[in-house]
Amino acid sequence: MRKNASAPLWRRLLWLFILSGVVLQAYFALRIALWAVIPPSSSTFMRAAELRMLRSGDTVAWQHDWVSYDAISPHLKRAVVASEDATFLTNDGVDWDAIQSAWDRNHSRHFERRGKIVGGSTITQQLAKNLFLSPERDYLRKGQELVITFMLEGILGKRRILEIYLNSVEWGHGLYGAEAAAQTYFHTSAARLSPSQAARLAVMLPAPRIYQKRLYSPYMNGRTAVIAARQWDVQIPR
After folding, report:
1. 7 CB contacts (<8 Å, ≥6 apart)?
2. Residue 120: φ, ψ to 5°
3. Residues in the chain with pLDDT < 70?
4. What pLDDT is stored for residue 57 in this prediction?
5. Which residues pair with 23 in a beta bridge?
6. Parallel/antiparallel/unpaired status of strands 175-176 and 63-64
7. What is the chain's mean pLDDT, rounded?
8. Number of Cβ within a 10 Å radius of residue 166
9. Residue 92 and residue 184: Cα distance in Å, rounded?
10. What is the distance of C-alpha 65 from the center of its chain?
11. How far apart are CA 161 and CA 35, in angstroms?
C-alpha cells in the first residue's frame, strides 16, 4: 500500500490517461451497438451545425427524416457508393491505398506548411467522423476515426452502415438524409429517385452547401453523367 501511495505522479497520470481512453472506447462501442437496432437521432456534425445556426440567428428550416434501407432507391445507394467509395462492399472500412497516398501528400512541403491532414475516406470512415468526431484534421483525430471505423464494421455491418450514412449525411444547409434531399431537390421520395437524380445527389456530397446553389452547373451536369454511368459497376448490400 505504501509503495502504491508513493508511486510517481507521472505513473498515476499515465494510468488515468489509459483508463480514460478505455472508457471512451467502451462508450463509442455501446453507442454503436445501440444503433444496430435504434436509428441515431442526430450526429456530432448535425449538432455542431444546429449550434452554428442558433448562434448566427439562421432561420433556415431543419430537415431530417429517417427512412429504412428498403425505402431508399437502389439508384441512390449505387450512385453514392460509386462516387464516395467504390470498394465499399469489399473493403474492411479503410482504403489503405488512399491512406498511403494521403500520408505521402501530408509529408510533402506544401501540406506541411498548411498543417492539415488530407486524404480520401471511405463511407465507413466518413460515418465515424460524422457521428462522433469534430471536423478538425490531425493525426490523433484520424487515429480515433480508424478505431471507430473498425467498431462500425464489426458491430453494424455494411447494410446498416450504408443505411445510417444515407440518413445522416448532409445534403445542404440544414438538410440531412436522403428523404429530405429527395423531397427538397426533386419533390419526390428517396424511394422513387431516378438514376440521374440519384447521381446528382451523390455528386453533391463533398460540398453540399456549395453545390445546392449550383445544382445544374456545367460541372454538376458532367459529373452527374459520369456517376450515372459508373453506378452500375458497383455492388451494394442487399
Report:
1. none
2. -65, 145
3. 1-7, 98-120, 135-136
4. 84
5. none
6. parallel
7. 88
8. 25
9. 34
10. 17
11. 10
